Fold these 2 entries.
Entry 1:
Amino acid sequence: MELTLTDFVLLTMLGSMGMVLFFTMVSRTLHVRAEKRSLANRVICRLCLHAFEETSHVSTVKCPVCGAENEKGRSRRFG
Ligand SMILES: [Zn+2]
């Protein structure tokens, strides 16, 4: 099989399009995963409704804005 310049250009274009599609899917998957992870650690303050992330394994966390104690995981029921 002889590869002409047209074939080569076509293959390169198809290849780059496939690469773009692949990377778009990968980045989207990673983004969704990161979002799910941050949602699991999200705490919404019961006083000022400030949403922040808490990754430590304690049951109560202090709001960085107003300093109120918040029970972790309770906000998940609402959101
Ligand atoms: Zn607060």
Entry 2:
Amino acid sequence: MLTYHTAIIGAGASGLFCAGSFATPKIIIDHNKIPGVKVGISGGGKCNFSNISVTAADYQSQSKHFCKNALAAFKPQDFITLLERAGIAYEQRAHGQLFAKNAQDIVQFLVYRAKTQNTDFALKTEVLDIQKKDEEFIVRTSAGTIQARHVVLACGGLSYPALGASSFGIKIARQFELNVIEQRPALCGLSVPKELRPICKMLVGNSTLAQVSTGKHTFTEQLLFTHEGFSGPAVLPVSLFWSEGEKVRINFLPDIEALSWFYKQKNTSKKMSTLLPFTGKIGAVLLGQLDKPLSNATKTDLEQASRHLNAFEFIPAGTAGYTKAEVTAGGIDTREINPSTFEVKKVSGLFVTGELLDVTGRLGGYNLHWAWSSAYCTAQKLIKKI
Ligand SMILES: Cc1cc2nc3c(=O)[nH]c(=O)nc-3n(C[C@H](O)[C@H](O)[C@H](O)COP(=O)(O)OP(=O)(O)OC[C@H]3O[C@@H](n4cnc5c(N)ncnc54)[C@H](O)[C@@H]3O)c2cc1C
């Protein structure tokens, strides 16, 4: 049986970063053929690896303060410094988002760093089971059994099963009797009820600036019409805060108060939609039968049309699901985890990093930053456990 100081389950963002952050001999195991698959396609192939400003308020979790230690221990500038030393090009975009020129540069950097820090790679290897016997973990894989003093669960959430996501981490959490916060797809589109589908279908592929809200959370960005409903940067963050049965409100004209806009032009015989600053047929489709020549429109018509444009409300039928969700919200309850070391409080030697934890960042590089910060803290503890 192979014996290691540490076995890291998952060669994704947090597993690779953890492996490269301490030099003790270790193995990293992944059922994918290549490491860092999700990182490689993240940020549309450019990897939004962090954000210039990262605070606990950028994360959603049952324990609001849990992430503070890790975010203070490993900051965006720390990752930037590593990239600069490695000569990897990056750029800052709107809202402080930090992108690589090419996501593959980040993958190569993570893999190289791990290899130079005494890491053996076991790829195309599924981890089937983990048991703890006295002070050792017995890790059963599709390629044999490994014994390790420490195990890092870096096996991510349920999003994008095609890229290797699995429920393995949650299975192990339950086996060790850790509390799990219910998981759900997040940072994804929202599907509309049947009666609104025709509108979305007619506008598939079109996008417009919109203000989208749920509860106290509002985002003003581009909204994209899809076959199932709405997506795009204005909708993805809303999905993080939306819970089933809650209303979502859309202001399709965030810069215009539609009623006064119509009144200013009341004498024209042009249809309402032709006077609105939408591109293509968006205005006409959104207004549908409400779209009348302004001079014929009654006060009620104008009020109805304005409400439709400035305060469109609906209850989503659901989210676009794990196949399209950038992240999984929920996960292992952080109250089970030491916030400085990421060790499971009641299972010494077992660590959890990244998306598997109930810590979910908003859109803009926060989830990868969480992967780095949580992995860094884990590695700092493992360095000391020799
Ligand atoms: C399309 C897409 C784009 C994204 N873009 C961004 C972005 O630009 N910026 C950002 O901040 N976040 C982005 N994210 C989110 C970010 O990629 C994740 O939050 C991050 O990768 C989580 O890191 P992790 O280490 O927890 O898990 P992962 O990176 O998902 O790694 C988990 C690994 O565990 C492996 N695994 C699972 N089960 C087993 C098993 N039983 N045996 C062996 N191996 C197993 C998986 O194959 C996988 O490689 C994106 C996500 C997606 C899906």
